[in-house]
Amino acid sequence: MEPSAKVDTQPKPRLIVRLGIFLASHHILFSALCCSAGIIALLFLPSLAKNTYLSENALIPGSANPLFSSEDVTEANKFIKGIEAAAGESRGGMEMSKFIVQQMKDLGAEVCYHEFLPHSKHFHPLKFFTSMTNDLAVRPNGTYSNSGTNTIGIIRAPRGDGKEAIVLVTPYNPQRVQANEVLSLALGFSVFSLLSRAAWLSKDIVWLSADSQFGEYTAVSAWLNQYHNPMFVGGVKHEPDGIAEKAEFTDFKRAGTMAAALIFKVGETRNYGDRDSVTMYAEASNGQMPNLDLLNVVHYLAVHRQGFRVNIETISSLLSSAWLRAIAEVIHTLGSILRKINPDWKLDITASDYVEGTANLASSIYNQALGVPTGSHGAFRDYQVDAVSLEFSPTFYIRNENAKSSFLVRGGRSVLTGLLQA
Amino acid sequence: IACDGDGGSVRRASCFFPRFPTGMSLIPRAAPAASMAFAGRDPAVISLLKMLPLLLLLTFSSAAAPPAAASPSAVHNNNWAVLVCTSRFWFNYRHMANTLSLYRTVKRLGIPDERIILMLADDMACNPRNNYPAQVFNNENHQLNLYGDNVEVDYRGYEVTVENFLRVLTGRHESAVPRSKRLLSDEGSHILLYMTGHGGDEFLKFQDNEELQSHDLADAVKQMKEKHRFKELLIMVDTCQAATLFSQLQSPGVLAIGSSMKGENSYSHHLDSDIGVSVVDRFTFHTLAFFEKLNMYSNASLNSLFNSYDPSMLLSTAYYRMDLYKRALNEVPVTNFFGSVMKTIHTDSAYTGFLAAHDAELPLSVGNNILDHVMLQNEASARRSNIEEMNEAQLMSHGWTEVLLEQLEGKNSDVVVMYGLGTMGILLAISTWLSM
What ipTM score was computed for the predicted complex, to two decimals? Predict the structure, then answer.
């Protein structure tokens, strides 16, 4: 035996160690490679995405008759006139909410007011360590003149077990009432009144008219906070403002666990174009999204049943960019080549659809990455409640009566059928 | 493997314990007792004497109980129906409507509630989403309320589980389960088993959280066959890929039909926009369409039922399995399973004890009566004096054959049987006295 054989170099390290060393030494190359692979995959995504499959075993949207008829529209029109009158003589914005409360009481619903203060500008670092999750700063003077007031109406399901609820939210600004906000309140009221007469409810319905003078998000999140983490302010009583009936509605009323929430409002008239449109906002805080079936149901109903066009927010600059269009053409040709090789491999998407899809994707990624909710549905997501915001954009002039009625009908129908699935 | 009696675990195989003492099992148990009793005496003579009455008893008991032993030739005398709906939630309204429609059909054609086991996994009639409370429809014209009067649900809600279903089939219940929840069929029963819900390849989904596998169903049917719990069984399944559920069956006398084959879906028939969900499935709809034309007296055959399923209307292929079923389908009327039509046998007179010399049932009653007599005679003779019996025995052992021939001449068989059993009883008394 030769002793020289024993004098060996160090044994070779294991493969994985060698791989790691190789990667680390060429890290710039690999980083660039992975980043570009990611970007290419993102660019391919709109063409690879399939259409949503709604399983007929579980979800059959639009299978029930919505029952929204012209009588409901007449009722809504009456409501509009009433609320405009109330807005006219409003002092401090209380008349409108009193009118809404009166209307809800007439329907037989339970009503309550919720007062809240805007988020204080101070940052309390110790807030995270105490259980004081409520931002309600109690002023020593007791002046509540600059607090917002939400009005809440609750319909109990006649044969339900009262454990779950569905929430409808219509935001409005009582300080500066606009015509489209009045229309959204009317829409909410008509849906609410229809549901108060429905025998097939299995969950309670809560209608929140949120006071958006400090911002829509503030109002909804304050209400949700009080709902889930109640703070009992002992010994602090309201100055009786001379309004007797307000006192009986100050007890906070609840309706059980929230199953889903729908925030809808009528936006400004966008374009006097072809179709009324609905814009859906789904991104919530920290990149959370609701159950996407909710979006699918709303999209399906709005498009196929009521003839709306559904928009999702886009980054409009991307829509007109030339290089994106070029990429679209490349993918299109690639798709046709692949189809010739094997008919099963599909990349078929038209160039304009691709561009729009990419713009949607970019906007959604941006919003999720930023973590700021795109609407007050974000407040719901903090409590794990699926919520989506709908903004109806009519194409008619907001004062036009006939167009309003038909729009109301269609909007109400789509909201209602969305609820029926729940 | 432990041999379970009734009430053991449902999943293990059971050993067959015969209910009636047949000839084979009686002798081994009796012989050791006899040999032990006669240990001190002359074994040959005494054991022979003991054997003789035993043999006589044996032949008479086997003659007296022919129906218990011969199950293949059992007469069809009752019909049972087990109707199972396995899905819950409002959007599975149509499965409930399917089962209730079959229930109504089966009752209309004659099966009474006490022989129907209805298992409904959820309550659609009183669901808050039902616009028509306490009413269940299977058609959008709302003409027929299936949940009206006289609906007796045996297993409802969360009681419909795979375990309870298999317990119903095999008959292995806890002792507290009431009779209305048991399948009390016997070897003369025809059973209709209808299952509907969501299914797949070799399984049926129960209550959205468990599955019944096809081999479990086959095992339960095999247990039923071993225990003689049915004469013939018709399994009807209305789910997706229904034919796979009975692919593992091997017991004879079973006929099975499924609404679709492997890889096919079964579809609902139509949507009722008033209620908001589909109200009936295609396969059941066409089955009902066939049965609505019938009444109790029709003799439409199973063949015509199976041929009435049109794949273009069902949008799936209804597949039936007849390899385990020996009779020809065009000879079997549908009321054999879906209704309850009894064959009545007209007798001229009511049963009047054992003097009327008529049909096959009578020796059974005669035998029972005489066995009772024997018991009484045993007690009577045991009280007599021992010496008298001994003398009698000695006398009879000489002139036994002459006496017998004398008696046999002019009398009929019943009297002879009486004499024979009487003699046997006396012999039994003697041997008992001798053993003391």
Answer: 0.74
